[in-house]
């Protein structure tokens, strides 16, 4: 068993295909496939199910990958310790954010790391909160800017950036437009416009509706807050987003939910004892947050 074989396996898991994995590790696809097959023969188990269009892990592969990730992380930590002793920050930094998260301190911190530690390979990806949190737990991401509703995600270090209540938004000619609040029971009967499952606002909405026994699919499920605003402003339903997301939506009326302070939190999440590049990034992020007055872009979904 060779270390590069484990890295190839992890690349296939993270990229979703042998072709994308080969590009990520800068090796010909045949080389990646050959090495993975060689590892499978040596271990006596099939790691990947190659029958579908997208390569997936077998049940045995799930267990192998968990140990492979731990083994690679342990080796990387040895190298990082040596680099730290020499005052160097190198390696990789994988950051995930909710889609559309245009928050100044995040980009300031990324720019600082890029300028001060050019040896760090920085990658940023967007996605839905639940998936980002899972990737931090698995080690596929070092840091995530993600949202959740209720208790903080288990097993991760969490620093809350925004703590938002859930609000409803309606068109200015909507029957509720003259009001300031709406009850959960009323929302349960309305045509709702919501973000997808996996976002913090949707989790908060589902928890709130379950309180009144009315958990059901929204009339409209859209990927972007921009779509929520576009549909709601045309009278096609009642939009449900976080209060920060609704900032600046002058064409809509924002209503608080009267029954309780339902909401979601958006924060920075990472595993305990992050690697050196991630620690350096988190330090830069703290400095950027303390020195910045810039706020989140209202269109960022969480």
Automatic annotation (TrEMBL):
Annotated keywords: DNA-binding, Transcription, Transcription regulation
InterPro entries: LysR_HTH_N (IPR000847), LysR_subst-bd (IPR005119), WH-like_DNA-bd_sf (IPR036388), WH_DNA-bd_sf (IPR036390)
Gene3D superfamilies in the cross-refs: 3.40.190.290, Winged helix-like DNA-binding domain superfamily/Winged helix DNA-binding domain (1.10.10.10)
Residue span(s) of domain HTH lysR-type: 1-58
Record carries keyword DNA-binding: yes
Top-level taxon: Bacteria
Family, per entry: Belongs to the LysR transcriptional regulatory family.
PANTHER family for the chain: SMALL NEUTRAL PROTEASE REGULATORY PROTEIN, TRANSCRIPTIONAL DUAL REGULATOR HCAR-RELATED
UniProt name for this protein: LysR substrate-binding domain-containing protein
Species per Swiss-Prot/TrEMBL record: Gryllotalpicola daejeonensis
